[in-house]
Amino acid sequence: MVMASVLDTYDERVRLFRLTFLRERLIMDWISEIVRLARLQAHLDKRCLFAGETTMDVPAYGTGKAVFHVLLDGACTIEVSGRHIELTAGDVVLLPGGQAHRVRTAGGGGQDAVEEPGEAFSIMRSQTGEIVMDLLCGYYTFGSGAGAMLFRSLPDPLQVSFGQADEIVRMLSVVMRQEARHDGLGTRAILSSLCNALLAMVLRASPSRFVGAPAWTAADDPRLRLVIEAVLQDPGNDWTVARLAEVATMSRATLARNFSRSTGLTAGDFVTQVRMMIAAERLIETDLTVAAVAAGVGYGSESAFNRAFRQATGSTPARFRRNIQRFS
Question: Helix count (H) and strand count (E) of the chain?
């Protein structure tokens, strides 16, 4: 009994030390870490220069592609899944599911756009009229692992309104417009990199910038950010709600309520998602056995890990690794 009591006291001291260490250390740039885990690649499809009363129907992109539109100038409407999303200059809209949609400028929509081939991407122009809108259109590609998990966790559609007040985004828009006009050697690579940067800005945007539901990455409560950082830093920890509440210095009920309200995810679902994203990365990047990967992200049972991974990705860990190796 005495030995058990000593061990319990020791375990409690280790736990408290670990929590204190996590609270006091700025552990990572976790937005960059999430983007890295997702293994995304941006592709610019077209630039749209529309006059009024113009419509463009965009077909569905299919599995593994998330569509984005960046409005550089003017105004337009995105019609998707029965919704009308009004965009003004500085707005970004992301369609994580890559579903079919329509782009329309004000008026009756009496004319279609005409496609002109370009060096790096197509130019879509109205047949007649003065240009009132400048829109960049593209998509992010991602595999069935961390990237798919990230986009599934985001509202669909997701709209961020940066407007003209955000200095960094305004400068980025200027560079994107200038490069799009150049449309020459290196343009595709440069704009793809800028679009990847834009996604990071979307994910880290203040909740007030979102029109509608924000991304869970936009949680602005410093205590909740500590929770997010702690799980990313140490996915193998025993992250019960009680332990997460200790990191946030909240009661369990307050943490559960605030986390769901700020992120749209339960704390438990968030922990599982991070663990699966990190597990997917380790299956790709390391030669660790499935059992070792499972243990590293907090699963004492390999079969429990297999079930969770299959639910998250549609594949067993072993098959997921084989498929990645086959197509590498």
Answer: 12, 10
Checking if the pLDDT of 108 tops 80, the result is: no
Looking at residue 10, its amino acid is Y
Task: Inform me whether the pLDDT recorded for 2 exceeds 80.
Answer: no
Tokens at residue 293, please?
Answer: 């990967």
Provide φ and ψ at 127, rounded to 5°.
Answer: -70, -35
**Structure confidence at residue 328 (pLDDT):** 60
Q: What is the pTM of this model?
A: 0.84
Task: Please report which confidence band the pLDDT of residue 61 belongs to, taking 50, 70 and 90 as the band edges.
Answer: very high
Q: How many Å apart are CA 133 and CA 145, to the nearest integer?
A: 36
Instruction: Give the list of residues 6+ apart from residue 327 with CB closer than 8 angstroms, or none.
Output: none
Q: What are phi and psi of 77, to 5 degrees?
A: -125, 135
d(CA 57, CA 303): 46
Closest listed residue to residue 47, CA positions, set 14, 69, 78, 15: 69
CA distances from 60 to 93, 148, 273 (A): 15, 17, 26
Rounded to a whole number, what is the largest CA-CA distance in the chain? 88
Q: Which secondary-structure segment (H or E) carries 76?
A: strand 65-80
Does the pLDDT value for residue 9 go beyond 80?
no
- DSSP string covering 190-207: HHHHHHHHHHHHHHH--G
Mean pLDDT in the chain?
Answer: 87
- What confidence score (pLDDT) does residue 180 get? 81
- Positions of E strands within the chain: 41-50, 54-58, 65-80, 83-88, 91-95, 101-104, 111-116, 122-126, 133-141, 158-161
Question: For residues 140 and 67, what is the distance between their CA atoms, to the nearest angstrom?
Answer: 6
Distance, CA of 273 to CA of 278 (rounded, Å): 9
Residue by residue, DSSP assigns 98-161 as ---EEEE-SS---EEEEEE--SSSEEEEESSS---EEEEEEEEE--TTHHHHHHHTS-SSEEEE
pLDDT at residue number 179 = 84
- At residue 309, the pLDDT reads 96
CA torsion 138-142-146-151 (nearest 10°) is 40
Q: Which one-letter amino acid corresponds to residue 5?
A: S
